Amino acid sequence: MTAATPGLRGWDRNVLWQLTQTGMRRRTSDRVLGVAWWLLDPLLLVGVYALVFGGLLEFGRHAEQNAYPLFVACALIPWRWFAMASTQGASAFQQNHTLLLSTPVHRETVLLSEWISASAQALAGVALLLGLMLVYEVPITLNLLWLPIPLAVLAALSLGVAYLLCPLGVMLPDVGNLYAALLRLVWFLSPGLYALSRVPEEWRGLYVAINPFAGILEGVRRPIHAGLPPDWEALAWSAAFAAIVLAAGRFVFLRLTPAAIRML
Amino acid sequence: MGIVIRCEDAGLCFTRGSRRHMVAASLRRLAGFAPRADGTFWAVRGIDLSIRAGARVGICGGNGAGKTTLLRMICGIYEPDEGTVSVAGHTSALLSLGAGISAHLSGRDNVFVAGALHGLSRGEIEARYDEIAAFAELDAAALATPVRYYSAGMRTRLGFAIAATLTPDLLLLDEVLSTGDVAFREKSAARLHELAAQARCVVFTSHNLRFLREHADQVLWLDRGRQLAFGPAADVLDDYARFMKRAA
User: What is the ipTM of this complex?
Assistant: First the structure.
């Protein structure tokens, strides 16, 4: 035995796994339908968008937006993953405050466990996408193999945001309210309900440049809905943005966490 | 026998006041500026201790004396702002009254999460599971119930059973045992003596002087964050009792 600064425990896979399960159970164990909600939630969400925007507002009448429920689901399901994982990760300290104030648990593991459990839940929606592809009989092409790339960019971006907001949200709870409003704004400013090609051409360059989700959501949708590869130029910009957010977010997380823990 | 806990002139400074004030002070500190003296206070300061393996240390002092803050520093949850705190070996979770690890999880799941946090594998936890359940005096139906439906006593029993059965080198208890029913208190106190006899170290806070006198061999007396005395239990507690009588 050697004396050491008590400090925090190191990285431990078993702890990550146990805490991830804890996070998943928190959101399913008291529901009568349990895990079925992982599919029902996105199904109902896609249903509402398909009804309002596809049915009532006839967004599906544009050729590039045909099979509207599948079209909107291609963006809605990855977007929902981003929103859930970043929000859940951002509230990791509040969700686990007893744990953080009673054990020297590795704090990054607490954040990651929340992010992973939200991701597992949200990614079950991918099964819904596959189902919709069969329903609308879209041609299955080799371009589907590109999908992990835009999804990886989205993962990096949501993790980066979670890192950034996690200690900030403890110090300034107002951040949570602002973030919820910001998420809503960005969703409507992203090519989710409409195709990127519907954005007037003179604005499109600026639109893609200021919104990293343009490249990501189109990058997911093109292989599924249109059988085309992602727009690499737009996706490269999104990837650069995500890398910066992830690096900056983790830096801020490591810097602010000791102060945030004292304010829990 | 070796030293398990060593504190050298350790102190921890909190900001107090409105939320806005707290955030401003944290940002100032991050930017490298010294905190302004107004609106900050030392929750504990000038703590000098060496605690040997096999010791049962009680911490006494009024409300706001810094007992919990000191335990959190020893546990590694808070970093000291001045001085050093060092600990040898494996520390348990800091047990406080009524705090479960995850209230929405069943008692059984809590055992597994706590075991993982103690660095045990699933197999090692399974091997000790029955012993923990028996010590906590909880049957299978209770252990399958989410902890949020437990009574305060059930939570305390489960928490203590987990922490004491996982045989940490250092067990930290915040006002856990001096309350609660007599039978469990006796059993838990016996466990403290057992752990100490195995050259492990137990540190607990209490307002109950009799409990401290019976179960601590050394006592640390804190008053408004300052260490007023640290030494053999009987001596420190006599002084403390005299002080309390004068104050009352």
Answer: 0.87
